[in-house]
Amino acid sequence: MSKLQEINPQIRTSFRKVEKQTVTDDVESQLRSAILDGSLKPGESLAEAQLAMQFGVSRASIRQAKFQLAQEGLLEFDSRGTASVRILTPADVREIVEFREVLDAAAIRLACSRLTKDTVAKLTYCIEQIKVASQLSQLTVLDIDFHEEIIRAADNSRMFAAWQLLRPQLQFWLANMQRLHASVITGTKSETARSHRELLKALQSGDADRCEQLARRHARGLKKLFDRLNAASTDLGASHE
Fold first, then answer.
1. Nearest to 110 by CA among 176, 181, 163, 168
2. Which class in CATH covers the domain with range 9-85?
3. Boundaries of CATH 1.10.10.10 in the chain?
C-alpha cells in the first residue's frame, strides 16, 4: 500500500458545515487549522469527494481551497493531481530557517527607528500570554505573533508580504517539532518569554546592531535545539535495534 494513505475525514477529523457566503474561505480556514494542529498528518492525502460531502460544498470549492493551501506550502500535489499534507524535507527546513533569520534581522533593524507605544504594548502582551500559555499550540502561535508585530513595526509592505508567505510554513514546522518533542518543549515557556523580553528591551534601546544580533541568535536557537533532539531520538532508536 502507498505510504501516503487516503484519509476519511469523517473518521479522522470533524468539520462543521460552512456558511454559503464564505464557502472557500471557510473550507480553507478549517483545513489550515487541521493541518497546523496535527489533526491532518504530514503525508495524508485529502479525498476531495469525502471532504465535499462533509463540508456540504462543491468539489470545486474544496479544490480551490486546496490550491490556496498548496501556495502556502502546507499541501502538495502528486503527478495524479492528488493533494496531501506536505512532508517537510531537511532542505525545506533549512530554507525556512534561513529565510526567517534574514527577514527577522532586517525587520528588527527597521523597527528600531519606527517603534511606537502601541507596538511595545502589543509585544508586552504577547510576552505575558507566553508566560501563561497552557498548550504547545498556543506557545507556537504567540511566538510567531510576537515576531509578526516586529515585522509590522518595520512598516515595509513588501517585507510584510514576504512574511505572510513564510508564516504558514514556519508555524507548520514549529508545531510539528513541538509535538514531536512535547516532553522537552513544555518546560521552555519561561525561556521563550525571557528571550522575547530581551528582544523587546533591545528594541526600546534603539540599538539596531544589538537587535539584529539577538534576532539572528533567536532564529537559530530553536533550530539548533530541534537538531539536537532529533539526533538524540535517532541515536536512541538505533540503540534499541
1. 163
2. mainly alpha
3. 9-85
pTM over 0.70: yes
Would you state the pLDDT for residue 135? 78
Query: Cα separation of 146 and 160, whole Å?
Result: 14
CA distances 185 to 29, 110, 180, 233, Å, are 27, 31, 9, 14
> Taking Cα atoms as reference points, which of 87, 80, 5, 89 lies closest to residue 45?
5
Q: How many CA atoms lie within 13 A of 81 on its CB side?
A: 3
In the chain (241 residues long), the average pLDDT of successive 10-residue segments reads: 50 66 85 92 92 92 94 93 92 91 95 95 95 82 94 97 94 83 64 90 94 90 72 54 55
Q: Is the separation of the CB atoms in 83 and 77 below 8 Å?
A: yes
CATH topology of domain 90-239: Four Helix Bundle (Hemerythrin (Met), subunit A) (1.20.120)
- Whole-angstrom distance, CA of residue 99 vs CA of residue 212: 14
Contacts 24+ apart (CB under 8 A), 61-68: 61/23, 61/24, 61/27, 62/27, 64/24, 64/28, 65/24, 65/27, 65/28, 65/31, 66/31, 68/24, 68/28
Please, what's the b/e burial string for 14-53 (b: 16 or more CB within 10 A of its CB; e: otherwise)?
ebeebeeeebbebbbebbbebbbebbbeeebbbbbebbbe
Where exactly does CATH 1.20.120.530 map onto the chain? 90-239
